[in-house]
Amino acid sequence: MTRIAVATFELDKWEPQAQDEAGGTEFARVAIAKTFTGSVEGSSTVEMLTATNAISRAYVAFERLSVSVDGRKGTFVLRHTAGDEGLSLVVLDGSGSGELTGLSGTAAITQDEAGHHTFTLSYDL
Asked: Superkingdom, according to UniProt (predicted)?
């Protein structure tokens, strides 16, 4: 049975690590840290790679979450891919540990007009 866990999160760190531009497309590497509050409670670190030019933007990232999900403590990894076709967040199979061992699913991130982020995890365990 698929469950839904909803949380808000704050960006604690957004640090560009490196940038390179050639042929009109810029590559960047960014280190990110987040704090989650709600049905997902804890923190995460993200390694992100971006590509940006005059007509398109995309990124790929891996996010390691050290959290409790509906009271179960552990870690897992989310794989991010985003571009003109949209955003995809998928739990990396086999990445769950502790009480989150065996976790699978997807996630979504939304941002309201005030800039507040909501994280929704659809998961099986």
From this structure: Bacteria
Left, alpha or beta for 6 (phi > 0: left; psi -120 to 50: alpha)?
A: beta
Confidence at 51, pLDDT banded by 50, 70, 90: very high
b/e map 88-104, b = 16+ CB within 10 Å = ebebeeebbeeebeebb
Whether the Cβ atoms of residue 119 and residue 40 lie closer than 8 Å to each other: yes
How many domains does the chain contain in total? 1
> In terms of residue numbers, what domain contains 30?
3-124
Q: Give how far Cα 10 sits from Cα of 72, 79, 100, 102, Å.
A: 21, 19, 22, 27
**Residue 56 maps to which CATH number?**
2.40.350.10
Write out pLDDT tens, residues 105-115. Answer: 999 999 999 98
SS3 readout for 9-44: EEEEEEEEEEEEEECCEEEEEEEEEEEEEECEEEEE
